[in-house]
């Protein structure tokens, strides 16, 4: 008898920059079981909701499985020849700068390296930019100004060793959950450890803090300039360190002198007392880590925000030592790897820029005679150049710019106007793939091999454990094939990712006399076996036997150029609110979704936490605008409009709106927040001001609300005529939330069209009240299974429980009781669990509220014991606490 074969591989999570290790076990043809890797130093066995639900995202629904040329399937040779011809024609007629690549921090290092080499080294233009421009480029620019190189000096352990953690502009409990879990575990061990959160919103992260400064958006430079002055005035400046290892102190001090606590309190719109509390905590503890993320980077003063933070750590010499330092959180799994290969338009390769000696060095290493000599266009400028017709051919890889760029409708105009658009993606239908002349099917996570680097400079392997589906191919292969077809046979003659990785490693060491700290030369001669066995380690890795460097000495140890204080000017965001646009529109992430939903949108578990686009607004503002909970609002800016569900939230500052970034034209009728965002960028980094656009909001007077549930995936086109729709993945069904401006006299013909082809032998159950305000219909197959149902009512609250109806799709056959209940729109026996709060154990909001208010379970531990909520990954604990607080009688209820 054949022995049962169980295969175990170690790989890395494809979502955020924490870079958690995963262990995948697969027994013969069973579905792979994905678990956290207990040995990976990023997570030591922890995982968050997104990592835990990866198994639900691996299906091939809507996967792009074959190359396509203007909508027609073609073979790889035809596709690759077409791409090479398209690029060559543009280069021949208009020069190398007439072509561009727009790539992504979700490419593996090997893919990224080859894309960068092809564009900068062989096409001879630096018009390759990346979605990291929208993400990390202010941090990169800030590091370069302060340290002369893009360096993150610390490591994750510092977060556990710190006495004070400051999180600025980051909702880490939702966006870097495993790191946040590590911080929380450390706080439990050491009760005097303090967490301070600086964010205009009271986020799940802020909710867990000892001190939350709900600052005025855009006021971070004032806050940190004030901290600088406080440290300096009160004897916390480390003079000998400043003299020996830094420069620029005096001019920074002179600028910061103007920021006394009273001024900071006014600038930041926070009580002076709270500000001084923060300053004292920072001053009185040696071990302070300042974590920062998109509330810092995505601003027209993003780079100055970064340097204002670093200045304070330099002044007090709180960096380069255990438990302290400024710490930029990277967003995407390989944001850091992309920076290492030089994937930004203003960097060349391996932490080298466009200085003449570096250009010559890289040219000799690549043996190229057409290397780019100067920086290329940054993302926003690049899409402007496409629209203006200066760029004739663009190749987009692993990013969805029609959703994620600011002024996203401009990006749409640009691609519509462009002569030749190539898109490499795993999915067939995204907002961006629809504008491609050539579509190239890329291998997805689990199907490809390579490396990624996380926020703490740790390089980890990703391993394939699934076969390549259809004609899908890894990105490095696709790019190399085009490189060869452009006549660069030798330069792109790679057999496997290991070849590329060692070349990349050798380039980092090439003529590196120590002036570039990014040096992984020790990995430059790995055999395939060694590459496959490579364990996670932090660069620099100069020699083959180096095990890695947790902290970067050399940032401040006097062997390199001195670290620099930068004079940082506090300036307001570019566009101010006005009578016409009185709100500030902020945008960001929710806990269980990833970016444009191409992956997490497939998972029922992840779709249950926040299932629709929403606009969060303070209840007072909502009252003034007559915005009721769960109704629909229109949000509008000078650049665009969207429709979203109202969430009244007293964690919002007054005058501010928050809309998530995830929903797009494939998932909703009109919810791309990018279309509303001003295309203003930071002058140094080119990073857009995503967090701040003047906006207004108003109710949309919907006459009815409803939802459709179907067993088959509903195509978005079917709903194009509706005034509002959003589709949501459920178990064994899809749900489409909808609303309309007009009530129909007779819903039946409309309902039949909407439900699509109903089988002739299906049972059609229908209920309509005389005013047509309540309408319900269900289609039941001859074998008794529920195929589809549609529920309409005059208000959102009058609709039946979605989880009860969703559950009916899992039944083999409906009985007469179910049929009665469907018609009645209410199952007497069922209670509505409400929106899912704990994804791991599927515990809903209503269930929790009941347990808290009726059974008096007033602690997260008690809820855990009774309902298991929060007992697995812990990502929902901040929300459990919020719910407990909101159920206390003295408190006026939260949203
Ligand atoms: N669940 C989930 N996790 C993710 C992602 C995801 O899509 N989903 N994406 C990953 C990626 S690529 C990234 S870049 C990271 C982003 O991770 P984060 O930066 O933590 O997430 P965001 O929600 O974009 O925004 C962070 C916070 O900045 C605040 N903010 C806005 N304006 C200001 C300001 O002027 N000052 C300050 N101090 N704060 C401000 C916002 O209110 C928001 O709460 O998340 C990564 N992790
Ligand atoms: N308003 C607003 N906009 C923002 C932000 C914000 O806070 N507010 N944040 C910005 C930030 S920080 C980021 S990082 C961006 C993210 O924005 P995007 O990068 O545009 O978002 P994703 O959905 O991650 O797009 C990745 C695409 O690549 C595909 N893909 C996945 N894996 C692979 C692969 O291996 N190969 C290939 N070829 N394709 C693959 C996916 O199917 C998907 O279509 O959004 C930015 N936009
Ligand atoms: S914290 Fe980030 S890397 Fe870790 S499991 Fe969650 S999404 Fe994946
Ligand atoms: Mo990002």
UniProtKB/TrEMBL annotation:
InterPro entries in UniProt: Asp_de-COase-like_dom_sf, BFD-like_2Fe2S-bd_dom, BFD-like_2Fe2S-bd_dom_sf, CT_Nitrate-R-NapA-like, MoPterin_dinucl-bd_dom, Mopterin_OxRdtase, Mopterin_OxRdtase_4Fe-4S_dom, Mopterin_OxRdtase_prok_CS
Matches recorded under Pfam families = Fer2_BFD, Molybdop_Fe4S4, Molybdopterin, Molydop_binding
Q: What is its EC number?
A: 1.7.99.4
One cellular-component annotation, GO:
oxidoreductase complex
Tell me which positions the record assigns to the signal sequence: none
Cofactor entry: Mo-bis(molybdopterin guanine dinucleotide); [4Fe-4S] cluster
EC class (word): oxidoreductase
Keyword annotations of the record: 4Fe-4S, Iron, Iron-sulfur, Metal-binding, Molybdenum, Nitrate assimilation, Oxidoreductase
List GO BP terms, alphabetically.
cellular respiration; nitrate assimilation
Residue limits of the 4Fe-4S Mo/W bis-MGD-type domain? Answer: 6-62
**SMART domains attached here?**
Molybdop_Fe4S4 (SM00926)
Top-level taxon: Bacteria
Q: Which GO molecular function, any one, fits this protein according to its record?
A: 4 iron, 4 sulfur cluster binding
The family classification in the record reads: Belongs to the prokaryotic molybdopterin-containing oxidoreductase family. NasA/NapA/NarB subfamily.
Show the PANTHER family listed in the entry: NADPH-FE(3+) OXIDOREDUCTASE SUBUNIT ALPHA (PTHR43105:SF9), RESPIRATORY NITRATE REDUCTASE (PTHR43105)
- Protein name as it appears in the record: Assimilatory nitrate reductase catalytic subunit
């Amino acid at each position: 008898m054949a022995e049962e074969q169980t295969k175990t591989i170690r790989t890395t999570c494809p979502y955020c920059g924490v870079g958690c290790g995963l262990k995948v076990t697969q027994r013969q043809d069973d579905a792979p079981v994905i678990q956290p890797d207990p040995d990976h130093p990023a997570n030591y066995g922890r995982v968050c909701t997104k990592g835990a639900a990866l198994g639900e995202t691996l299906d091939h629904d809507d996967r792009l499985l074959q190359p396509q040329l203007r909508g027609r399937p073609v073979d790889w040779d035809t596709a690759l020849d077409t791409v090479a011809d398209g690029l060559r024609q543009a280069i021949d007629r208009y020069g190398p700068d007439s072509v561009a690549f727009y790539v992504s921090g979700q490419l593996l290092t090997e893919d990224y390296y080859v894309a960068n080499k092809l564009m900068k080294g062989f096409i001879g233009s630096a018009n390759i930019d990346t979605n990291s421009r929208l993400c990390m480029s202010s941090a990169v620019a800030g590091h370069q100004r302060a340290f002369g190189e893009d360096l993150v000096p610390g490591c994750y352990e510092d977060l556990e060793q710190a006495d004070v953690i400051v999180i600025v502009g980051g909702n880490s409990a939702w966006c870097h959950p495993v790191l946040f879990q590590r911080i929380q575990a450390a706080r439990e061990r050491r009760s005097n450890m303090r967490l301070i959160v600086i964010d205009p919103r009271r986020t799940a992260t802020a909710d867990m803090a000892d001190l939350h400064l709900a600052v005025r958006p855009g006021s971070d430079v004032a806050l940190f300039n004030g901290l600088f002055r406080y440290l300096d005035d009160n004897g916390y400046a480390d003079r000998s360190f400043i003299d020996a290892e830094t420069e620029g102190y005096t001019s920074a001090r002179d600028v910061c002198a103007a920021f006394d606590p009273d001024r900071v309190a006014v600038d930041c719109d926070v009580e002076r007392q709270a500000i001084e509390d923060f300053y004292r905590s920072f001053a009185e503890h040696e071990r302070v880590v300042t974590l920062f993320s998109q509330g810092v980077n995505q601003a027209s003063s993003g780079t100055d925000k970064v340097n204002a933070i670093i200045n304070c750590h330099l002044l007090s010499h709180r960096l380069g030592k255990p438990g302290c330092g400024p710490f930029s959180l990277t967003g995407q799994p390989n944001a850091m790897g992309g920076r290492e290969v030089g994937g930004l338009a203003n960097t060349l390769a391996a932490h080298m820029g466009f200085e003449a000696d570096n250009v010559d060095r890289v040219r000799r290493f690549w043996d190229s005679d057409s290397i780019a000599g100067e920086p290329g266009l940054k993302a926003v400028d690049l899409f402007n150049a496409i629209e203006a017709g200066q760029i004739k051919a663009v190749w987009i890889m692993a990013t969805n710019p029609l959703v994620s760029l600011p002024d996203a409708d401009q990006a749409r105009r640009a691609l519509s106007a462009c002569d030749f658009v190539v898109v490499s993606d795993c999915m067939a239908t995204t907002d961006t793939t629809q504008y491609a002349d050539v579509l190239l099917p890329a291998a997805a996570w689990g199907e490809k091999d390579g490396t990624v680097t996380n926020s703490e400079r740790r390089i980890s392997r990703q391993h394939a454990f699934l076969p390549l589906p259809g004609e899908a191919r890894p990105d490095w292969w696709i790019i190399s094939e085009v490189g060869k077809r452009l006549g660069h046979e030798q330069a792109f003659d790679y057999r496997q990712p290991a070849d590329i990785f060692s070349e990349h490693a050798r380039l980092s060491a090439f003529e590196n006399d120590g002036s570039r700290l990014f040096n992984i030369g020790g990995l430059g001669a790995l055999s395939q076996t060694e590459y496959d066995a490579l364990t996670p380690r932090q660069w620099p890795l100069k020699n083959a036997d180096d095990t890695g460097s947790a902290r970067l000495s050399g940032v401040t140890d006097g062997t390199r150029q001195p670290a620099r204080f930068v004079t940082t000017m506090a300036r307001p965001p570019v566009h101010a609110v006005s009578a016409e646009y009185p709100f500030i529109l902020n945008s960001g992430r929710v806990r269980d979704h990833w970016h444009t939903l191409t992956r997490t949108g497939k998972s029922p578990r992840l779709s249950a936490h926040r299932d629709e686009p929403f606009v969060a607004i303070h209840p007072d503002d909502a009252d003034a605008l007559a915005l009721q909970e769960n109704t629909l609002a229109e949000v509008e800016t000078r650049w665009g409009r969207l429709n979203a569900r109202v969430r009244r939230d007293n964690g919002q500052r007054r005058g501010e709106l928050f809309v998530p970034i995830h929903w797009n034209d494939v998932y909703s009728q009109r919810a791309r927040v990018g279309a509303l965002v001003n295309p203003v960028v930071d002058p140094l980094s080119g990073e857009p001001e995503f967090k701040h656009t003047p906006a207004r909001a108003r109710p949309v007077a919907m006459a009815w609300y409803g939802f459709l549930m179907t067993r088959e995936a509903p195509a978005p086109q079917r709903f194009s005529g509706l005034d509002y729709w959003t589709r949501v993945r459920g178990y064994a069904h899809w749900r489409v939330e909808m609303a309309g401006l007009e009530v129909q006299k007779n819903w039946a013909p409309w309902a039949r069209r909407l439900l699509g082809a109903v089988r002739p032998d299906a049972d059609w159950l229908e209920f309509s009240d005389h005013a047509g305000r309540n309408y319900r219909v269900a289609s039941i197959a001859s074998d008794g299974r529920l195929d589809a149902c549609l529920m309409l009512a005059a208000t959102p609250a009058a609709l039946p429980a979605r989880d009860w109806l969703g559950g009916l799709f899992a039944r083999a056959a409906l009985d007469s009781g179910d049929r009665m209940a469907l018609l009645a729109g209410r199952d007497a026996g069922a209670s509505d669990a409400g929106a899912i709060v704990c994804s791991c154990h599927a515990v809903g909001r209503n269930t929790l509220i009941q347990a808290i208010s009726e059974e008096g379970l007033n602690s997260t531990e008690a809820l855990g014991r009774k309902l298991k909520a929060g007992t697995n990954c812990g990502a929902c604990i901040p929300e459990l606490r919020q719910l407990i607080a909101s159920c206390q009688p003295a408190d006026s209820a939260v949203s």
